[in-house]
Write a structure and sequence with these properties.
260 residues; alpha+beta; 4-stranded antiparallel β-sheet; 12 helices
């Protein structure tokens, strides 16, 4: 049996290592003094938080402190409205953020809508006698939740009272019906599809195709650097007569393309 290396220590636990985890921890830390923060970080590192339960819209835990019996902690985050989140994602053309979340990412477009930003976004209560706005036990519990969000970003959705399947279902349900008249009728009078129309079809199979833009007529030869073209053709061994014929052929080709 291999002996444990002298002086080795178990890895230090961390929290708030991702944008969403850091945002949750930050709003709970707001206003806490150094003594409470230091004690809570020690409780977190030493696994003082037991029976952590993250239910939709509510977090409960039992935290071992200075007394024999643990203290009961309840965190109540301000819930979000899933329908509003999906509507705002669609308006911004960012519904793919839900797929990114399903892959384990923390898409910024979604984070801007759901991540807590102020202390009032997370209410807290504890059975301990400490009258501070955020006691050590509340802070330690928040750090545990932050660490879970770091590992699994969808935990933040559950904390806020919803989940990814709900958001995906809303995104699908709000797609336009296939029987609705297509915004594109013909090339002559087809209306231009707006970003909202394109984002409204979550998987893209019903997305209207915008009409092609109308290009202003122009003579490409006027934009061509004829001096550079002549130099290149001379370097290839083409004579002056053949050079003139090549330019005439090029002009005819551009004219044919323009008049199609």
């Amino acid at each position: 049996m291999s002996a444990r290396r002298k002086g080795s220590r178990p890895p230090v636990r961390g929290y708030g290592l991702t944008p969403w985890g850091r945002a949750f921890a930050a709003v709970v830390e707001t206003g806490a003094d150094h003594r409470h923060l230091t004690g809570a970080r020690r409780y977190f590192r030493d696994h003082h938080v037991d029976d952590l339960v993250v239910a939709p819209g509510e977090i409960t835990a039992a935290v071992r402190g200075s007394q024999l019996d643990p203290f009961d902690v309840v965190l109540t985050p301000r819930p979000i409205d899933p329908a509003t989140v999906v509507t705002l994602l669609r308006a911004a053309g960012e519904t793919d953020a839900l797929l990114a979340l399903a892959r384990g990412e923390q898409p910024p477009a979604l984070g801007e809508l759901i991540a807590p930003t102020e202390s009032a976004d997370v209410a807290s209560a504890c059975t301990c006698p400490d009258e501070a706005p955020r006691c050590i036990h509340v802070l330690a519990t928040a750090f545990e939740v932050s660490a879970q969000i770091d590992r699994h970003p969808t935990v933040l959705l559950r904390v806020l009272g919803t989940d990814l399947p709900d958001l995906l279902a809303l995104a699908r349900d709000r797609e336009p019906d296939r029987d609705e008249a297509s915004p594109i009728q013909n090339a002559g009078n087809a209306p231009t599809a707006t970003p909202e129309q394109i984002a409204a079809t979550y998987y893209g199979d019903q997305a209207p195709i915008p009409a092609l833009p109308t290009a202003a007529p122009m003579d490409p030869l006027t934009e061509l650097d004829l001096g550079a073209l002549r130099a290149a053709l001379r370097a290839s061994g083409i004579g002056a007569t053949e050079l003139g014929e090549a330019l005439d052929d090029l002009a005819e080709l551009y004219a044919a393309l323009r008049d199609r």
